[in-house]
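Quick start: load a record and inspect it. Here is Protein NRT1/ PTR FAMILY 2.10-like:
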Amino acid sequence: MERNNEDVHNLDEAKVNYKGVKALPFVVGNETFEKLGTTGTSSNLLVYLTDVFHMKTITATTLMNIFHGSTNFSTLFGAFLCDTYFGRYKTLGYASIASLMGMVVLTLTATIEKLHPPDCGKGSATGGACLEPTPWQIAFLLFGLGLLIIGAGGIRPCNLAFGADQFNPNTASGKLGINSFFNWYYFTFTFAMIISLTIIVYVQTEVSWAWGLAIPAFLMFLSCALFFMGSWIYVKLEPEGSPFTSVMRVLVAALKKRRLPSPDQQWPSLFNHIPSNSINSKLPYTDQFSFLNKAAIITPEDKFKSDGSADDPWTLCSTQQVEEVKCLVRVIPIWGAAIMYHVATTQQQTYVVFQALQSDRRLFFGNTHYFKIPAASYTIFTMIGLTIWIPFYDRIVVPSLRRITAREGGITLLQKMGIGMVIAIVTMFISALVEQKRRNLALTQPLCEETGRRGAISSMSALWLVPQLTLIGLSEAFTVIAQVEFYYKEFPENMRSIGGSFSFVGLALSNYLSGFMVTVVHSLTTGNWLPEDLNEGRLDYFYFMVSGLEAVNLGYFVLCSKWYKYKGSGSHGVDEMDFGKTEFEKTVVY
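Running the structure step on this input writes:
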């Protein structure tokens, strides 16, 4: 049977697509169990630190901010090692084992009594007090968290791309395979989050922490088993070398030629060699960051190879390389605005748990029967808000906007980010008002029960936290998803794995910044705003402060957006050009 060139160019491409179909169950199964394991371990970790290790709220919150920040920041190193040395298969293999070991260590801290402090009031020696963990207990705990950080650094930037590697995007069947994989990928993500924030969190808080942590560890073991079982059939692409080398060459060459005068006619007089095997799209000349253009000035000392390339790439770079570096530099201010934005989303993952713990979490069935919702499970409403809005936005809002603006996406990516930032400001303001209501009812109409080291339970239903959690999910549907597409589009093709890690690095710095803000506010207010008992503090003031900072950040973002020029065009951020969407972009964004 004759094969069409449009469908399969050669035997190797047919083999890639065939492998993709057979590898899909292994890859998707691995992704499902990996997410169940990692989210099941980390989603309720804040409560674990306060309940089992008897950490103070401020200490546990700071530690969690550092942990989440480190897991996200480590993706940059993971992406670098993957692209430069190991490749995606080996990086995922090493990282999966590290994550499994980390989960086993955390499970041991809950299972073996000597690895965590005794229960409050257990034994006459404690005198009813809550003993603090010993240094070696903390060290063992941090060892487990460190292994999880190493695992996340390798898994997060590689797992999505590794699945897509199994298919050839240049063939019709390969495109269908990639589309199917991305659909399953995000389905498993949603499925894992729902299971983790409901069933696993319930087991952890209501049954046993030992079982609650052992279940995610076992699921991670299944993930590793499925991953390595499919090794014989995977497409394993070799690393292409460090993408930072070209960036460093441009910076070094521009520095060496900094004293040279700029040519009168920029574009024709600059070195413009493009290798035939380059995977990057050709970029037009731009006038921004003109000092970098000096890296492409040809001098009498410059020599060339037979193929037209520079003999010394550290003294002469092409205009293509210069424009690629400009793409990276232009993204950084926008990325900086995203760091402050994520401070708002961080608050809805940390202090909102403590708000729920000091609110009425009972869900009544009849007059006497009720179910108490675990505090960490309330964050599921963030995900619900996000997942409900995305198809509505894609099927109803975007077509309507497209008819008005004549843009493929309805509005530009930077406009989408801005809308999400506005919603984040409103979210933090509403959060402050809800906290005022919760605190007032806790002081005037508390429930009879208490929560151990914390104060009285407010008679306000914890369901009042749902609007702010849903709103922050809506905000993420605009800003976070737009950021993913923005980094994917604006980075050079050979740096897209690094671009993918930019979102995680931004989250990391947001976690660090949030932890720093909490520590500073706690210190400056001598604990009056953020005490152990929220009823005695003013968490609402802290939320108002974050809302104000988000408003300042929005102003900064608007200025950066007006200045920004999209890759491949001379237009500014308000005039985004629509490029043909790849299967990746179609799937990730909507």
